[in-house]
Design a protein that fits this description.
Layout lengths: L21 H4 L22 H12 L7 E6 L2 H12 L3 E5 L3 H10 L8 E5 L18 E4 L2 E2 L4 E2 L2 H10 L5 E5 L16 E5 L10 E6 L1 H10 L11 H8 L10 H16 L2 H23 L2 E3 L10 E6 L6 H9 L20 E5 L10 H21 L1
Parallel strand pairs: 2-3, 2-4, 4-7, 7-8
Antiparallel strand pairs: 1-9, 5-6, 8-9, 10-11, 11-12
Helix pairs in contact: 2-8, 8-9, 9-11, 10-11
Length: 385
């Protein structure tokens, strides 16, 4: 299928690694500290890492007394560290997509049997759990925006969780999809985890863990009492960050990219503006779905994410694999990851990233994507006749 080049977008709509800032994409690798020691004086806590920490905290409105750690690997080991370092006797939370399930079900299942595990899941055919977590558990796991299904936890729910938490409860958020793209309730968490490869537009394999004073204290209390691996023990990280801001050798290039992203976001209206930009991107896609006759939003509006949009294909003659394959085979390298649903989901559907850098100045790229989808669908229908 030869899709006309003039309607093809110039960015990737994959959900990670996602589209990067154009200035960052043009920067020579040698200018990103990739050849420098993370222990050098101008790099560590008193240098570049300090600048990146302050910019990210300012962008995300992180309370000043919270600690930020650049953590090893992507979000998965960071989520693992949170569970192992901060769970006392019980853990509760929500599992309503691949990544929240991995955190709340699969990682937590590895905890000792004497740890009470109370995880709420949606009923058959639903996308969000009806039951609330146990707000008296020692650790409560919430995912404000689920990357896999495009489901979001409403602000009111996150605020309620904070207000109802027990006296010895920590609230932990996985913000991988939304950090940098959603204006979340300020300070209504003890832990925030995210990888940098979504809204910040960096390469994969780097994450951030943000801890409240209560979470830092909990990590110190638990450290050494169990069998937590050294690299997953957040108390170890706390002993390192005053000097290095990281437990191990980090990907300094990714941190450099995240810092450049944070600086651009701050200079262009901060997190409020990024929230509006992501919603503008999503709305263009949703308006198209409403008018085209063969797509509809998969998630009800109350729980719909605006950083990752999922669409159901309502025309049985159109298969997501065929549509996605045609887009991936276009002559644009940026489209090689396509707009397919997350692996493992059977529903005939699409998943589209609406992160800030998919279009920094409006929604032209989303408009082009809609034109591309419509062209492909019409060509597929011709072939089916």
């Amino acid at each position: 299928m030869n899709i006309p080049s003039e309607i093809l977008p110039d960015v990737t709509f994959g959900c990670g690694p996602s589209q990067g800032h154009p200035d960052i994409r043009k920067t020579p690798l040698c200018d990103t500290f990739f050849e420098r020691s993370h222990r050098a004086g101008d790099i560590t806590t008193n240098g570049f890492y300090k600048e990146a920490t302050e910019n990210i905290k300012k962008l995300l409105k992180v309370p000043q007394d919270y600690k930020l750690v650049f953590f090893m690997g992507g979000a998965t080991p960071a989520l693992d560290a949170v569970v192992w370092s901060l769970t006392k006797d019980s853990v509760s939370g929500l599992a309503f997509g691949t990544f929240s399930k991995m955190w709340a079900k699969e990682i937590c299942a590895c905890l000792p049997d004497n740890i009470k595990k109370d995880i709420k899941t949606p009923k058959e055919g639903a996308y969000f759990p009806e039951e609330k977590p146990d707000y008296n558990a020692s650790l409560v796991l919430l995912t404000p925006n689920e990357t896999s299904m495009g489901v979001a936890i409403p602000d009111s729910y996150l605020i309620e969780a904070w207000e109802k938490k027990g006296p010895d409860t920590l609230i932990a958020w996985d913000c991988t999809s939304c950090a940098g793209g959603r204006d979340l309730p300020v300070g209504k968490y003890d832990v925030m985890v995210f990888s940098m490869q979504k809204c910040f537009g960096t390469g994969g394999g780097s994450s951030v863990v943000i801890l409240s004073p209560a979470a830092v204290k909990r990590a110190a209390e638990i450290s050494g009492k169990g069998k937590t691996p050294y690299v997953l023990d957040l108390a170890n990280a706390m002993t390192k960050i005053e000097k290095y801001q990281t437990l191990n050798t980090p990907n300094t290039t990714n941190i450099w990219m995240a810092n450049e992203s944070a600086k651009w976001m701050l200079a262009n209206g901060g997190i409020e503006a990024m929230d509006k930009l992501c919603r503008k991107h999503a709305q263009k896609i949703l308006d198209f779905a409403k008018s085209c006759g063969y797509l509809e939003p998969m998630i009800p509006e109350e729980y719909r994410s605006y950083v990752t949009v999922t669409l159901r294909i309502t025309d049985p003659a159109i298969k997501d694999d065929d549509l996605n394959s045609a887009i991936k085979k276009s002559d644009k390298a940026c489209l090689k990851d396509g707009i397919g649903k997350y692996g493992g989901y059977k529903e005939n559907s699409l998943r589209i990233a609406c992160f800030p850098y998919t279009d920094m100045h409006g929604d032209k790229q989303q408009e082009l994507l809609c034109k591309t989808i419509d062209y492909v669908v019409k060509e597929l229908k011709k072939g089916n006749k």
